[in-house]
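Q: A reviewer asked whether we had any structural model of the full assembly, not just the individual parts. We don't, so I'm hoping you can provide one. Inputs are below.
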Amino acid sequence: MPTSGSRWRRHGLIVITAVRALRRNALRSLLTALGIIIGVAAVIGMVAIGNGARASIEESVSALGQNVLTIFSGSNRNNGISMGTGGTANLTLGDYRALGSEVPGVVALSPEISATAQAIANGRNWSTTVAGVAPDYTGIRDWKLTAGAMFDEHDVNSASKVALLGPKVAHELFGPLNPVGQSVRVRNIPFVVIGLLESKGSGFGGGDQDDRILIPYSTAMRRLTGERYFRSLTIRVISAEAMDSTQSQITTLLRQRHRVQSAEDDDFMILNQKEIADTMSTVTGSITLLLAAIASMSLVVGGIGIMNIMLVSIKERTREIGIRIALGARPGDIRLQFLLEAVALSLAGGLIGLALGVAISTTVGALSSLKPVVTGSSVALAFGVSVLIGVFFGSYPATRAAKLDPIDALRYE
Amino acid sequence: MTYASGEAEVRAVDHLSLDIQRGEFVAVMGVSGSGKSTLMNIIGCLDPPTSGTYLLDDVAVSQLDRRQLAILRNEKIGFVFQSFNLLARTSALENVELPLHYSEAVLPRRERLARATAVLTRTGLAGRLNHRPSQLSGGQQQRVAIARALINNPEVLLADEPTGNLDTRTSADVMGLFQSLNDAGITVVMVTHELDIAAYAKRMLVMRDGRVVDDRLNDRRTVASEEQARLQHAMTNAMLDERDADAH
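A: Here is a predicted structure for the entire assembly that you could use as a starting point for your response.
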């Protein structure tokens, strides 16, 4: 019986033979592997970009704050005609107070009312969004201050002319100077800057969150907009588990307060941050899967290319196969030799494709705000799939080579 | 034994009974279609007979499957072909080493190369170890093929028209190699249609229509060294004649 050392040596020699044959036809091997290279690169790239997109969506959704519900006014129907979200402002101060006192799951809440206005200070002016909010607002949105402090209930009650500046506004008006304590005129009303907001980047659904001024909602209503209604209410719920029950309690309360008949639709809309995150995540997941599926078609095409070239190669090397069989190569040796050639081709393609996929992901990451993530599992998958393709598409040609009749093969010209 | 090829049951070899002893040097002659190639394929374990028995070193070859035939060829048969059948773009050393890749117990590389070097030296190619077939003459290529056939110490050296692609002088050289190998105890079976090549053998068989029609010992055997000397002499004379003719 052969020792295990000699069996390894036997298989090692077959591996060397297979790799040499591929190296001998380097250009052909490269072109054959191209299908696999493109396929693997596409799968790796797509999955990485998909993962990156999902991560960035999750990040911007969580930038809304933890366990946050947002109630938008409007969306009421008038004789069957939907007015759309925000069609009618109908969230009142009464709603705001009732939600704070009657719904137990609500730990913090803030109304929001906004207007576009020109801000003037320091001899410069800048058009920005001025939002009227409650003191809880920055806490709900996990929004830190880099200087100063948020206004308090007292400022709300007295409709104080105090403002917090987003970093963009501060930069446009004051440059690198600390704006706290300075005066800003908004629609010609002088405000005292009491705080500077931390940078939060572009928000969910676009819009630069850094380009805004926060003032007490009472001041905004009285001095800027003159409206009696809020655009939206932002609520922090006590825990993730309480989100759904709190949402239904809020719905019930607001329907009562707005006297919505049981057959009618809500005249407001509640956005659940967790639901948005889940939905977006599912959507990105599906798109990633779809793209990966399309990309993997290229792997199948690549596999067929390998099979084709292996069949041609076996035809060309019929005489060599005949010689090997005459000299004592067993059918298993010949089959293994050509199977290994196919696997080496697709594996090499897989590795080059992997490198290319990582390069694509890195390039995309460098050129856009997306941060593609190449996961270990997609690398393992690319590796495994390319070996499987080699085995699958290499089996038939290899078996054909092993079945060659040595007498015919030796005579083949 | 009988060998039938294809569906139409063409009996390429029919009612043939042959016994070859260890140490013989047999030449098989015959016109094409006489069945001599089929006989070679059977002896070489490339194709077992359809019916009948073939015993190689007491092993019943007709009972074996493709894998077992491969092992038998590897261990007991050394092939030499008319067209050399060396692997292109592969050095002499690696060509000779090839049968060792398929041994039951594969030797380490160092030992394989040592053995390949030894047989190449024996066939007179010690200085051509790393030459590729394309860098060698026909006679040298056939010597590589003979070295390859010898590497596993086979029972039989099986040669199919070994001089078919060689000139007269090189043919005499190759036959000289065969004779010295045979003198060293190796059994040689050689197919040829050239009588002067068959004349180097100890025993001559003639085949016709799948049967052996003549089987005799060769009592006027050509000795390679004498033939080489004769050829050398003839060539020298021819050159001298040519010079004399020029002088006139």
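A: Points you may want to mention in the reply: Chain A touches chain B through 28 residues (CB under 8 Å). Residues 91-266 of chain A form one domain.
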